[in-house]
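Check out one such.
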Amino acid sequence: MPDLSFSTARSVRDYLAAQEKKSLLRFLTCGSVDDGKSTLIGRLLSDTKQIFEDQLAALERDSRKHGTTGDDIDFALLVDGLEAEREQGITIDVAYRFFATPKRKFIV
């Protein structure tokens, strides 16, 4: 029987080593009210496959309840986590989001 803990540890080390080699890009969004800043960040997270299936299911539910995009997914809700933000359709709290692609790490 193979030693799974050894192979797991090696996989983790390999993953961490690969992450260290990636360049880091920090960026921010700015704009007026309703310009789509939260939607842009939510869409980036979605397009880079950073959303788990359970998060996507919750997002679909929340979009039906609070969303402002009709029957479509409201990607702004990924960033706007406070209940007051969802009810009012605005971002109140400043937040960082981290994600990665095969070539780069990002902090928004």
